[in-house]
């Protein structure tokens, strides 16, 4: 007898969940636990660093090992009598928001592992030691740590497939569709968390290049575009190299610093976007020129 397609997918979900829980066990109960134990002796790295590397992996591990996997297993054992998994996944979905924290922290965690492996040979040795064990299957700690980042997209794909293969009259139809929608929202939630972190990270780098001027540093600003520009001096018909940063609320007109200590640019002028006017000029001598005028002053600029 051919198993129905939707049951095959549900079984695949169960099998990958079992493998995933083993991977989480390795991360939480082996890597994290052993690195933490060593950190407490004060010989390898500060405890804080280990905590920062593993973020909230313990909560994620407990959730899957003690809640989701057993519930899924119960469902599959009972499949012939009651073929459904949608309700269980609905219970699971809201907890997946915990991943936002882990995913957001992932790049930082990998950087910390690299930095402390260089700084602390005993730390590096302990990791290498655990990586040699059979349970690690010749993969690095970083590789295992990527697994939770990829798990939610995996649920999304499996569940999409499951919903597609369900017969129209299946008792799980309504629940499964709702579950898919919830997982989809969570996946968006963690992607949004990453996007937000990246945005702030990039913004911070720009602020450093500008010398961290107090009144410019604001986390809600958005950088729209930046780049070099020529300033035209009408007095002596010459141009000089300047640099523009356009944010959602202001245009920064900067001079590149010759000696770069700390900041790359000095902000010469700040024009608020509100009330700013831009007008193209038809200048035969200087092509691609335009005027930018704000309340304070007007600049004649030439693009490449």
How would you describe what is shown here?
The structure is a single chain. With 304 residues, the chain is of the alpha+beta class. Helices cover 55% and strands 17% of the residues. The chain contains 8 helices and 7 strands. It has helices at 5-40, 47-54, 57-77, 86-92, 99-119, 121-131, 141-165, 173-209, and strands at 223-233, 238-247, 250-256, 265-272, 277-281, 289-293, 298-302. The chain has a 7-stranded antiparallel beta sheet with strand order 4-3-2-1-7-6-5, with no helix packed on it. The N and C termini lie far apart (70 Å).
Overall domain count: 2
What's the shape? flat
Order of helices and strands: HHHHHHHHEEEEEEE
Determine the CATH superfamily of the largest domain. Answer: Dbl homology (DH) domain
In terms of structural class, how would the helical and strand content be classed? alpha+beta
Number of strands: 7
Architecture of the largest domain in CATH? Answer: Up-down Bundle
CATH fold-type name of the largest domain: Dbl Homology Domain, Chain A
The top-level CATH class of the largest domain is Mainly Alpha
The end-to-end distance, rounded to whole angstroms, is 70 Å
The rounded Rg comes to 28 Å
Overall pLDDT metric: 88
Largest sheet geometry: 7 strands, antiparallel
Fraction of residues in H or I helices:
40-55%
Tally the helices: what do you get?
A: 8
Strand content: 15-25%
Protein name: FGD2 protein
Pfam families: RhoGEF, SOS1_NGEF_PH
Subcellular location: Cytoplasm, Cytoskeleton
Main location: cytoplasm
């Amino acid at each position: 007898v051919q198993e129905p397609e939707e049951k095959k997918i549900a079984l695949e979900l169960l099998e990958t969940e079992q493998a995933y829980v083993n991977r989480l066990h390795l991360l939480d109960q082996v890597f994290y636990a052993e690195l933490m134990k060593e950190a407490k002796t004060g010989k390898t790295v500060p405890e804080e660093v280990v905590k920062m590397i593993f973020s909230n992996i313990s909560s994620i591990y407990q959730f899957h090992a003690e809640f989701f996997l057993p519930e899924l297993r119960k469902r599959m054992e009972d499949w012939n009598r009651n073929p459904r998994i949608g309700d269980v996944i609905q219970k699971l979905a809201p907890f997946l928001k915990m991943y936002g924290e882990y995913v957001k922290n992932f790049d930082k965690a990998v950087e910390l592992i690299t930095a402390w492996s260089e700084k602390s040979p005993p730390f590096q040795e302990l990791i290498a030691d655990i990586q040699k064990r059979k349970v690690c299957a010749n993969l690095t700690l970083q590789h295992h740590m990527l697994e939770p980042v990829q798990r939610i997209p995996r649920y999304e794909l499996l569940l999409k497939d499951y919903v597609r293969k369900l017969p129209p009259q299946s008792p799980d139809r309504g629940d499964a569709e709702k579950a898919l929608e919830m997982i989809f929202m969570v996946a968006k939630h963690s992607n949004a968390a990453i996007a937000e972190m990246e945005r702030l990270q990039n913004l911070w780098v720009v602020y450093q290049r500008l010398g961290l001027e107090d009144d410019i540093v604001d986390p809600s600003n958005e950088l729209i575009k930046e780049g070099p520009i020529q300033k035209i001096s009408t007095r002596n018909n010459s141009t000089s190299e300047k640099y523009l940063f356009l944010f959602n609320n202001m245009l920064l007109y900067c001079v590149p610093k010759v000696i770069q200590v700390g900041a790359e640019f000095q902000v010469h002028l700040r024009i608020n976007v509100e009330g700013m006017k831009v007008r193209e000029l038809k200048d035969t001598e200087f092509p691609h020129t335009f005027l930018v005028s704000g309340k304070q002053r007007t600049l004649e600029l030439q693009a490449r």
